[in-house]
Automatic annotation (TrEMBL):
GST C-terminal domain boundaries: 91-277
Stored Pfam families: GST_C, GST_N
Identification of the protein by name: glutathione transferase
Composition bias type Low complexity, residue spans: 274-295
Skewed-composition ranges (Polar residues): 152-169
The organism of origin for this protein: Paspalum notatum var. saurae
Length: 312
């Protein structure tokens, strides 16, 4: 059995970074999806490893880590003699450059890109032209799996919560629901626009840097480039945001280079739910709908208790 284990969902940006690094370094590992620890089973097993319940836990023999960039450094150093030899660099100057751009990603790229992805989940497919200069930009184009979390689980959960909180009765209640939805959309638009400005300023710096170097830290693909992939991929795949990357010649060239790597393409296949997962989800939804109909027709105490037990 592999000594390296990754606990989490491939749809998480933190987990996706680590998986790609492991593939780049040809490290054998075991992927344990978070859904394998749902409900009561998750508390004793998973939280024993990750007491704060974060999205990622990495085990390598006696070492347990949970911060994705620290894990990238660990993998690149420990397995330096296998796989891609350039991820962490070889000399002091090269490694200093890699660290500089890795820190830039962590401190200046991660937050605005993640919040843009989050806000887009609440916004309409087509944004007002005066607030969106993206035009008609087009989107770019050995692990063992043990247990599949839905894509953008956090955003999906927030969206479902927002939708579920809206009143279902007609008249005044419906009007309040529509007003709340409009207010939420306005808030998300403001967040999107602000973070877009922040990210565009940073991408202007990237454009200048990539005028003189093939990759951010120099002539080779490194963990500094790798760390950008999860959030950038979601933005570039969305017509409402991809223009930021496409409109900058050097950034566009760089993005095509890094995103077309076979290791990243394989990570993306792990992010897709299997047909069995989709069928299980549909079956679960049908059972839930039937249960809701029954509880609506019978308000006895017994059925109320059954509803509570079902949701628990």
């Amino acid at each position: 059995m592999a000594s390296v284990k990754v606990f989490g969902s491939p749809t998480s940006a933190e987990v996706a970074r680590v998986l790609m690094c492991l593939f780049e370094k040809d490290v054998e590992f075991q992927l344990v999806r978070v859904d394998a620890y749902r409900g009561p089973k998750r508390m004793p097993q998973y939280l024993k490893l990750q007491p704060h319940g974060e999205a990622l836990t990495f085990e390598d023999d006696n070492i347990t880590l949970s911060e994705s960039r620290g894990i990238l450094r660990h993998i690149s150093h420990k397995y330096a003699k296998q796989g891609n030899p350039d991820l962490i660099g070889t000399g002091a100057l090269e490694r200093a450059s890699i660290e500089q751009w890795l820190q830039t990603e962590a401190q200046s790229f991660d937050a605005p890109s993640a919040e843009m992805v989050y806000s887009l989940a609440f916004l309409p497919p087509t944004l007002p032209s005066k607030q969106n200069d993206n035009g008609n930009g087009n989107s770019f184009g050995g692990a063992r799996d043990v247990a599949v979390a839905p894509a953008n689980a956090s955003s999906t959960k927030r969206a479902a919560s927002l939708a579920g909180s809206q009143p279902t009765s007609a008249g005044h209640g419906q009007g309040q629901g529509q007003a709340a939805g409009a207010q939420k959309e306005e808030e998300m638009m403001k967040l999107f626009e602000q973070r877009k400005k922040d990210l565009e300023k940073l991408l202007d710096i990237y454009e200048q840097r990539l005028e003189e170097a093939k990759y951010l830290a120099g002539d080779h693909f490194t963990i500094a480039d790798l760390s950008h992939l999860p959030n950038a991929d979601r933005l570039v795949a969305d017509p409402r945001a991809c223009r930021m990357f496409e409109s900058r010649k050097n950034v566009s060239r760089w993005w095509h280079e890094v995103s077309s790597r076979e290791t990243w393409q394989y990570v993306k296949t792990l992010q897709r739910p299997s047909s069995n997962d989709a069928n299980a989800k549909n079956s679960s939804q049908q059972q839930q709908n039937q249960h809701n109909l029954q509880s609506a027709d019978d308000h006895t105490k017994k059925n109320h208790q059954q509803v509570q037990q079902h949701h628990n």
